[in-house]
Records
---
Amino acid sequence: MPRQVQRTILIMWIGAFLTSASFSLVFPFLPLYFQQMGLKTGIAEWTGVAFSVSYLAQAIVSPLWGSVADRIGQKPMMVRSGLAIMLVFAGMAVAQNPLQIVLLRLMNGALSGYIPASSALLVRITPRERLGRAMGFLQSGPAAGSIMGPLLGGFLVQVIGMRPTLWAGAASMVVATALAIWGVHEPPVAESNRRQRLHPLRDIRIALAHPALREVFLATIVIWTANTAIEPLITLYVASFPGLGAVPLWSGLLFSLVGVAAVFASPRWGREAEVRGAGRILRIGVLLAGIGNILQVFMTNPVDFGLTRLFLIGAGFAAVTPSLNLIVARHSAREFQGRAFGTYNSINQVGGMLGPLIGGFWGGAFGIRSNFVFTGVLFLATALLVAPSVRRDGVVDNAVAGAPTTAG
């Protein structure tokens, strides 16, 4: 692989790490922030809404940003989203009530997309035979950020409070944006792409018309609904453990364990996906995550809870993201990559929108413990949804989505 490509991938890894770390620096502790704002009831519901609106906005605009990216490049999308996320963190640092947090989260979803743009650019510059391991490496960046973010965030929230921690998140996005501006190299966009008119709805139809992409999009909705149904409530769940003090620190540690597993396992799963097929690795991942979530129902202390998150949920989910990205990349034409990943990210956000809403109101009505059963069942059901992709893995698909003969 050319040295310049390796350098760009490494810089994108650092940027994705900082972006993920900045998000997880504060968002696991939103329930505590709402409490500090004086909210006494409905904390789970407000948390669910605050998480969901960002996913809703991103689901709506991602296809548009994907079309724009195919015309002007992925690097400008990284810069745009980095600046937007920085402004969101600054706004949250001075917010005075939950409604302002919800509106800022809505803005965040409409304008973000640093990590999806990095993934799409990776596909453009990486040889196809090396795509699995490169994708696995890049995905370990957000995973590492999801470790550092909750750990550092739990410490900072405990010591200096939420508002200074939010300013720290804004500062990390300044660095990520600067890296995208001065460190990321992107090949020139083809002139034919620059002349294309924006047709987001048509691009969505092209992507959904492809059988493998349609299957993986359906699986993506279920996976992200399951994943995000419980994550906003982990802090509240940890607070229910008998005799446990320093809840922000413990929550940050336990929240980060999924990322710990992903850092070490994602590159390995990426290599396995190249050899065994992405569909098979995806199926293994959702089975592990489903079993781990159901087992968490029986956990009443942070040690057992943490081991389950590390060795089952974390190890399983480390296989999910690179596999999904690899399937999308292999079944879409290079000149259609931005739109394919834009549609994928939109579908991803639909699940992310549904999960916190369902999880927040479900947890408020039936107790947070019941959410683990719900998410576990969804993960296990996904193993059935990806079965057709498993059978088709390894077959060369000449009719990739967005090829010139298809896209017109």
---
Amino acid sequence: MQISFLVMFSLPEEITYSQYTILLFLPEIVFGVVAAVLGLVNLVFGFLQISRPAEDVYKTVMIIKLVLVPFFIINFVICVMFAACFIIIPYFVLGGIILAVLFMLMTYAITLVTSVYNICYSLYRVRTLKHGFFGMIVPFIFQFFFVLDCVGSILFYIKEKNDWKMLRRSI
């Protein structure tokens, strides 16, 4: 989405409307295909956490989610700008609704793709009886809601860090 703005403002004024449209949507299509493929690969590796977990997955996911916060803020600002433009020009209201739904779906897809590691690793920890079911339910549910997924990642990290401290003390 941010690539489109960069392309829009860097195009020369002498190009035709069809060239402008192609140059505007080509980066979006390429980015969309690459993101979809990498998202699917990420889901596969995330589901592997159920059977072959990585040890520091909570810490890594928490860092990734916190690094993505500026991206989501920029995404929100751009969506507000689009909404303002579509309110000012009433002919574009339907396009605004479609774009808003697409932006929300894209943002939620990013949220789920980054949450899959925490979800699957927590299932592994409950399945192997390392954590109790009720102790993991709140951060697990948080992974499915935007903004709360960051809070859930921090809760998972704190819980895992405390478990490692208790394990080291007992050894």
